[in-house]
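Quick one: structure for this chain?
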Amino acid sequence: MNFLEILRTAIFALRGNWLRSALTSLGVIIGIAAVIVMVSVGQGTQAEIDKMVSGLGSQRLDISPGGGRGPGGARMSSSSFFTLTEEDVDAIRTEVQNVQFVAGSLRGNTQVVFAENNGSTSWQGVQPEYFDINSWELVQGDGFTAQDYGSAGKVVILGETVRRTLFGEDSGIGQTIRLGRVPFTVAGTLKPKGQGGWGQDQDDVVMVPMETARRRLMGSMGLPPGTVMQIALTVTDPKDLDYVQGEVEALLRQRHKIQPGEEDDFSVRNISQIVATRTATTNLMSKLLGAVAGICLVIGGIGIMNIMLVSVTERIREIGLRMAVGAGPRDIRRQFLAEAMLISLIGGVIGIAFGVVGALVFSKIGQLPVELNTKVVLLAATFSICTGLFFGYYPARKASLLDPIEALRSQ
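Got it. Here's what it folds into:
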């Protein structure tokens, strides 16, 4: 029998009991649909986490004050005291190799007002390299000048959310706004960034020179002269991040006169550690989703094997007649294997359709990140064919090994 004859015979056999064939393919449909939905959700989630982590900066260290212990051995938070200074920033810049950019910053919240428009926002008092570290770009205006940084100039750069709140469609460049009670001139606006890695609106911010923030916006906080709330730095090569972290920690311990065995009065956050944790988590989740989808597919395959074994038992006399008129074991094996693969293939096609639709529904209704691509669909189709081949082989072989005389005697 050639391929077309085998295919025609298989279709005829399946049509003879179409309801059972449809129910048999249901397991494959569910399995393939599960593969597509779960793999798509897993890839979409991984892409979303990658986006969040990349927003933090994979070549960056954040240094915060605090982390030591106060009187009585109680651990003190970073808001309890401030141990980092602008001198520390300068020391890191000059003494630690492989540092690309480094900047200190101050931060706080304030009311921002222009005419009848106002809103509450956060402010950042920054040094020049802060914009490079955080990938902030100006879209309008000239930004801060060296004189602004040196003389505590009352100038401000607006994030997109604040600009839109105060000025609508206008840029606001050159306009005077108030931060709290202090008037500032708008020197520029920032390129929008959108939602950050922790769900915050990154554009709801205003930037001022650090010395301006210290003199005009800190109010009654009474920080020691030269204090900064955070130091951020980037390295040229991500491979140098651990080395730079060690050098920075050693330098700060030396500058802060921390004795061996004493705890640091600062803490360093290494973004590469977050990246490693993210990678391990997403890999584990992908394996879990793949395992669940694989179980669904195996269940569908077992259903095919069961029905094909039942079919062989019901059609023993038919098998005997085929052998009696010249069909060999190879022909019988091909026929039943073609039936199993046809059931699996039809179920696979329907399952792919259901899987694509299901993934899109999940992304709309469940607000889940979903990433569909052709590789997932091709993978599902391959699984479908392999399922029919693997689980259909045993029933097909069993049918081909029947004795023709015994099969003809069967009732």
